[in-house]
Amino acid sequence: QVHLEESGGGLVQAGGSLRLSCAASGRRVSSTPMGWFRQAPGKEREFVAAINWRGTSTNYADSVKGRFTISRDNARNTLDLQMNDLKPEDTAIYYCAANYGAQYGDWGQGTQVTVSS
User: Fold this and answer.
1) Hey, which of 11, 12, 22, 69 would disulfide with 79, CB 3.0 to 4.6 Å?
2) String of b and e for 13-42 (b: at least 16 CB within 10 Å)?
3) CA atoms within 13 A on the CB side of 117
4) What would the pLDDT profile of 81-105 be if each residue is shown by its tens digit?
5) How far apart are CA 1 and CA 54, in angstroms?
6) How far apart are CA 71 and CA 66, in angstroms?
């Protein structure tokens, strides 16, 4: 089992940027695909972005495509999410998780992102 801890959230104005980080501990995640998800108040948790273990393949939710970039540093055992041109609808708690094929697991505690209009 791996422990994941997100950081980098905060309050930003619409059009601004934030960079989220997810630090893994307990074991290396260099061979594990990873993803970012988010949950807004009163809504279900939704997929944001995913990356393969090498960092060579990514995919994004349509709502963030062209604005968000997922990346990873396997040497540092970290996962990042660069978020640009933020919108109020991006307000949510953001989580990182490990992809074990059938499902994601080892969820972090989340980091709050609030975008003001």
Assistant:
1) 22
2) eeeeebebbbebeeeebeebbbbbbbeeee
3) 2
4) 999 999 999 999 999 999 998 899 9
5) 20
6) 14
Q: Are 100 and 107 in contact (CB under 8 A)?
A: no
Say how far apart CA 33 and CA 49 lie, in whole Å.
11
> In which region does residue 55 sit, left (phi positive, over 0), alpha (psi from -120 to 50) or beta (all else)?
left
CA angle 14, 57, 27 (to 5 degrees): 90
Instruction: Write out pLDDT tens, residues 21-65.
Output: 999 999 888 899 999 999 999 999 999 999 999 999 999 999 999
Query: In terms of C-beta density within 10 A (0-12 exposed, 13-18 middle, 19 or more buried), how is residue 89 classed?
Result: exposed
Could you give the CA distance from residue 109 to residue 96 in angstroms, rounded to a whole number? 9
CA separation for the pair 42, 59 (Å, rounded): 25
Burial of 44 (0-12, 13-18, 19+ CB in 10 A): exposed
